[in-house]
Amino acid sequence: MSTDALEQDYVLIVEPNLTGHRWRYVEWTMQACAEAGYPCILATECANEDHRLARQIIAADRRDTEIAFVDPEERPRGLLRDPNEYWRFHRYFKRVYKIVSRAQPIRLVVVPYVDYFFYALPFLGSPFGKTPWIGITMRATFHHHKVGIKAPDRPLVNAIKAQLFKRAVRSAGLRTLLTIDPTLPEWSARSASKSSAAIAYVADPFPDEHAENPVLARERLGLDSEQRYLLVYGAITERKGIYELVEALTRLDNAPTLIVAGEQDAGTRHFMRNHVRGLKPAPVILDAFISNDLERDLFSACDAVWLGYKGHYGMSGVLVQAYRFGKPVIATEDGLIGWFSRRCELGPILSDLSTASIGKAITEVATSWPHAPEAVPSAREDLLSRHTLGQFKQTLLQQMA
């Protein structure tokens, strides 16, 4: 890094929560900044000091990639509470900007998960003063009924959020709102004001990987070469539909072997300890952080991927990875997972999470085991081939330039 680059004003990235997939968005944003020569600083809460990303940044000790730990301000007694979470997070982001910008000039702010405070913008304005900023929204679902995506029908709530969205994208300083939902820019082009910030699609990425030889992958994992494996991957919580899947597998003849890979929350860990004994064959449980190499072997070795999520209406990086490795999915019909799975013909779609529906879907997938390579449908290629880390960084940098 040249001296000139080090003397530039910094890009500030604010993400209080480094759990789940959020830390990866932060990491990829910081990588994009480094590759483009933009010095950057991550601001997060003190509870994340021991997170692997924080330790990595501190250990690297680079002048162009820094980290600041800022906790929310304790409310003095007697002051009114924030009316909702949007207000509380807006106050946190404003506090972070005030503290960091005093120590370091900021040229641009990037918010990898703007849904924290987005609907507070029409009332409170930008938390970053006059500094331009970019946000990524992942949970805007108010428009789904208008574009044919299955989601809860909440006419009043959706109408209110649509109006708040239109006002929020006119907030001072907001340069671009990026979204992992390809239908939101289309809806916005018809509905939002032309004087608003740019609204652009950024494909939800997964690290760029290619499938390994499944025989070799299974050898490394110690898996049976003759068994069929169904993979549940990621942060393992009840919302993954894991409870219903285990129940269905206990009642299914010739069930595939279940692989559950990823850190489990306490409730899921308790459930798994008490319910997986009835599974035949015995499941493979990897209750830990999954490295990139292990992840590649898991997706290479499995026969299908479970995406029967509950109450999740956004996109899924696991869906992208299943596509990239040529694995069929068993997916909920809800939200963007169902929308992508249906349009791209990725596998059986679940109308519900009943034992009968899950059993039928598993049987349908099993009829085509082993899965022979096939020509990729054009719709699938057009929609999912863009979900690369390189494409994500390129889209982000175009907006940051």
From TrEMBL:
Annotated keywords: Transferase
GO MF annotation terms: transferase activity
Protein name: Group 1 glycosyl transferase
